[in-house]
Amino acid sequence: MKKILFKGATLIDGNGGNPIENTAMLVEDKIIKQIGTIEEVQVSQDVEVIELNGRVIMPGLINAHVHIMMEPVGDPFALMTTESETKSILRAVKNLQKHLRSGVTYFRDLGGINYIDLELKKAVDEGFIEGPSFLAAGKMITMTGGHGWQIGRECDGVPEVIKATREQLKAGVDVIKIMATGGVMTAGVEPGSPQLSLEEIRAAVEEANKAGRRTATHAQGTTGIKNAILAGINSVEHGIFLDDETIQLMVEKNVYLVPTLAAPHCIVEAGVEKGVPLQAVEKSKKIITTHFESFNKARKAGVKIAMGTDAGTPFNLHDNSALELKLMMDAGMTAMEAIIASTKTAAELLGIDATHGTLETGKTADFIVLPENPLENIEALYNIETVYKNGKAIKVK
């Protein structure tokens, strides 16, 4: 078994404590065996030593909301439904590499095409292709004509929702994605409008829970968010229109928020000039300020926040998770809070915190090496020197 000692770096472990200078971290067979000062960590002569003086190491980023099969062009849905599946797969393979090389070592995919996401996950796990480890949701559960219908499983009424959810479980998904409201990218629907009912969402959640699966909901409008929370959802994606009552419910019921601030931000920044549909740009402009305000209210109230970008939506790039951390800081987080949301809290949401999310003895050696401290300059995440997945160095450039 290969043993590597990473020596001399400043360590940000993801737990929120002060960085530890001049550390030594011993990795053996993908696992962190020991962390301490250089004086504390005693190693044998057969250990490879990597000097990291002047560098900072922190856990690999965990992105809780990705669409690996979506290409971040002006209209991703149109592209996905017109090009061949072969080309979509080739794009997805490149997108996996982009995430990994930009510091994301784990993510959660929340909607692909025809269960190809499940095959991609297997290929990564088998070492057949390069990419972060990830959880896959298969087809999104949506009402007929609802948000994401182009790639989702349309269903209406409790019996159909139960069947649709069971289909996802039969396919082998890790998480069930439910569409509680309208959204920005689907023409003819409003982001704030409720779609699947409380009873329908509850039916999907109950089926998922029986199979030991967690649930996530696309939910932008207040009524739809409340419906999902009352139905027992695990995480609210986007959460654009959050009132005080909804926020309190999230705290009481331990529901996570994955804000995806980057999604409307990138749409507005790109605009119709780059091919984003006019209706998507107009809807994004209307909600972007409220989105930031809802995020900050939730943060102050103690809602658990996990980083997710919604990568794959218009011009929301697969190698730009750092943008979400910057935007969360713009909306009120400290750098440490943004890092915790992108590591420890995201791992807890995904249910992988026993092995990932923080750098501690016994956990998987997924981490990144930076030339400067992201607590002092979060843009250090744009200049990663090395990504390590399972203790193995990944070529960044």
TrEMBL record:
* Gene Ontology MF term list: hydrolase activity, acting on carbon-nitrogen (but not peptide) bonds
Q: Which Pfam families match?
A: Amidohydro_1
Which InterPro entries has this protein been placed in?
Amidohydro-rel, Metal-dep_hydrolase_composite, Metal_Hydrolase, Metallo-dep_Hydrolase, OTAase-like
> Amidohydrolase-related domain location, by residue?
56-393
Where in this chain does the entry annotate a coiled-coil region? none
Give the protein's recorded name.
Imidazolonepropionase
What species was this sequence derived from? Natronincola ferrireducens
Taxonomic path: Bacteria, Bacillati, Bacillota, Clostridia, Peptostreptococcales
